[in-house]
Design goal:
heterotrimer, A alpha+beta (240), B mainly alpha (112), C mainly alpha (114), A: alpha+beta, Ubiquitin-like (UB roll), Fumarate Reductase Iron-sulfur Protein, Chain B, domain 2, 2 domains, C: mainly alpha, 3 helical TM bundles of succinate and fumarate reductases, elongated, Succinate dehydrogenase (chain B), SuccDH_FuR_B_TM-su (chain B), transmembrane helix (chain B), heme (chain B)
C-alpha cells in the first residue's frame, strides 16, 4: 500500500482559493513531481512553470508550506508535515493563474536598479581586453554575488517588498551591487542614485530572509549592506 | 520627500545611532549603579546640579534621541500603515520638537 | 536555528525586537522627559513623582524599560555591524549576543532595584 499525500494547490488568480488533491507518495519525490502528477492525472487545467528540473533555470519557484523554494530541488519528505503540502504561487507578484506569477514587476525593478552593464570605453586600439585583477577586493565581492539566476525566491520571501511595493527588492539590489564592483562599468554614479532612498537599499531592515532562502546560497542582504555603505560615503561627500 | 532627502534621513538615523550607542551605554550603567533601593530625587539632583559635564551629556542625549525616535516612528508608520507623504513628515517633526522641548526643559531642571 | 516557517529565523527576530523596542521607547520618550521636567519645580515635586515609582508593579515596568533600552541598543549594534562593517558569518551569533546582553542588563537592574 502506498502512502498518500494531501496536497492543497492554489487555483485561480488573486481571488482564487485552494483545491485539495490526494497524491500517491513515492521515494525521492520532489514537490515538482507532485505538481506534475496533479496536472497530468487529476487537473489537466492546472498552470505552473518549470523547464530544467535540475535547479539551473529557476522557473519552478513556488511557495511550499508558506516558504518560497525551487520545487524541483525540494524533496517532499523534507517539507511535508503530517502528509500535507500547501503549494502557492510566489508572493509579492501578481498571479496570472494558479501557480504562475507575472514576473514582469520583478524584472522591471532590475532595470530600475540600473542592472545592465554600462561600457565605459570602446575596445582599445591595441585590441586588448580590459584586465580585472582576479584577486582584487571588488572582483571577489562581485564574484560572491553574481551567480543569481533570477528565480524570484528572495523577492517572494522579503517582507519589506510586501510593505513597500516600490522597494526594488533583494535580487535587483544584489545585481546593482555586482555592477557597482565592476571597475569597467561607467554607470556607477547613476546606479548608486537609482538604488538609494526608501525604494532602494535604505529600505532594507536586514531581516535576511533573502540570504536564508536563496537557493544559490548567495547573500543579497550583505550586498544591500554594501550598497548602503557606498551610498553613505557618497552622501557624506555630497555626491549623491 | 525626494530621494536625496530620504538618504539624508537614513544617514542622520545612523549617525545619531552611533552617538546613542555610547550615550545609552552610559545611561544604562548610571541607572544600574544609581538605583539603590529605589530612585531618589535628591540623589539624582545631587549628581546633576551644577555639573557642566552632565549638562552637556544629557543635552546631547536629548537632541539625538528626539531626532532618532522621530525618524524611527516615521519609518514604522510608513511601513505598517497607509499614512505617507508630507503630513506624516510634519507630524514626525512636531513629535521631534515636542520631545526636544520637554527634554531640554528637563535637562535645564536637572542642572539648575 | 533551522527556519521552519517563512519568518522564524534568528535575524528576523532580531529585527522584530529592534522594531518593537524602538516603537515603545520612542513613545515613552516624551513621557520620560515630562516626568523629569518636574524637577524644574524642585526636588519635592520630582520626589512626589518618584515616590509613585516605589510601587512594585512600577518597578517591574521600569525593569521592562531598562530591558527595552538594552534590547534596542544591542540589536542596533548588530545592524551597525552588518551595515557599516559588513559582517556576515557572525550575524546569527550577533543576534544571540544581543538578546543575552539585554537580558543581563534587565536582571542587573532588577537585582539593584529590589
Amino acid at each position: 500500500m502506498t502512502a498518500t499525500l494531501t496536497v492543497a494547490v492554489w487555483k485561480g488568480d488573486a481571488d482564487g482559493g485552494f483545491v485539495e488533491h490526494d497524491v500517491p507518495q513515492r521515494a525521492n519525490q520532489t514537490v515538482l513531481d507532485v505538481v506534475s502528477h496533479i496536472q497530468r492525472e487529476l487537473d489537466p487545467a492546472l498552470s505552473y512553470r518549470f523547464a530544467c528540473r535540475v535547479g539551473m533555470c529557476g522557473s519552478c519557484a513556488m511557495r511550499v508550506n508558506g516558504v518560497s523554494r525551487w520545487t524541483c530541488r525540494t524533496h517532499v519528505d523534507k517539507v511535508a508535515r503530517d502528509g500535507r503540502l500547501t503549494i502557492q504561487p510566489l508572493a509579492n507578484l501578481p498571479i496570472v493563474k494558479d501557480l504562475v506569477t507575472d514576473m514582469a514587476p520583478f524584472f522591471d525593478k532590475w532595470e530600475r536598479a540600473e542592472g545592465p552593464f554600462v561600457p565605459s570605453e570602446t575596445r582599445p586600439a591595441d585590441d586588448d581586453f580590459a584586465v580585472v585583477e582576479p584577486a582584487g577586493k571588488q572582483r571577489s565581492w562581485a564574484d560572491a554575488a553574481q551567480e543569481c539566476i533570477g528565480c524570484g525566491v528572495c523577492y517572494s520571501s522579503c517582507d519589506v517588498v510586501s510593505w513597500n511595493p516600490e522597494y526594488l527588492g533583494p535580487a535587483a539590489l544584489n545585481r546593482a551591487w555586482v555592477q557597482m564592483n565592476d571597475e569597467r562599468d561607467g554607470g556607477r554614479p547613476a546606479r548608486l542614485r537609482a538604488v538609494s532612498g526608501d525604494a532602494g537599499c535604505h529600505a532594507c531592515h536586514s531581516q535576511q530572509s533573502c540570504t536564508l532562502r536563496c537557493p544559490m546560497e548567495l547573500d543579497p542582504a550583505s550586498s544591500i549592506a554594501g550598497l548602503k555603505r557606498l551610498s553613505f560615503k557618497a552622501a557624506l561627500r555630497g555626491k549623491l | 520627500m525626494n530621494r536625496a532627502n530620504e538618504v539624508r534621513l537614513w544617514a542622520v538615523m545612523r549617525l545619531t545611532s552611533m552617538v546613542l550607542a555610547f550615550a545609552v551605554l552610559v545611561h544604562l550603567i548610571t541607572m544600574i549603579v544609581v538605583i539603590r533601593n529605589g530612585l531618589s530625587a535628591e540623589e539624582i539632583l545631587a549628581r546633576t546640579r551644577g555639573s557642566v559635564a552632565w549638562l552637556v551629556f544629557y543635552s546631547v542625549f536629548v537632541v539625538v534621541a528626539a531626532i532618532h525616535g522621530s525618524i524611527g516612528l516615521r519609518n514604522i508608520v510608513r511601513e505598517h500603515t497607509a499614512w505617507r507623504g508630507n503630513s506624516l513628515t510634519i507630524a514626525a517633526a512636531v513629535f521631534c520638537v515636542l520631545s526636544l522641548w520637554l527634554g531640554l526643559r528637563a535637562v535645564q531642571g536637572l542642572f539648575a | 536555528m533551522i527556519a521552519d516557517g517563512p519568518r522564524q529565523h534568528l535575524p528576523y527576530w532580531g529585527f522584530v525586537a529592534h522594531r518593537v523596542s524602538g516603537l515603545l521607547l520612542a513613545l515613552f520618550l516624551p513621557v520620560h522627559f515630562w516626568a523629569l521636567g518636574l524637577s524644574l519645580r524642585g526636588a519635592a515635586s520630582l520626589q512626589g513623582f518618584i515616590g509613585w515609582t516605589d510601587l512594585p508593579l512600577v518597578r517591574f515596568a521600569e525593569t521592562g524599560l531598562v530591558v527595552l533600552l538594552a534590547v534596542h541598543l544591542a540589536s542596533g549594534l548588530r545592524i551597525l555591524a552588518l551595515e557599516m562593517l559588513g559582517w556576515r558569518a557572525a550575524q546569527k551569533n550577533l543576534v544571540a549576543v544581543s538578546f543575552g546582553v539585554a537580558l543581563a542588563c534587565g536582571l542587573a537592574y532588577l537585582l539593584r532595584a529590589f
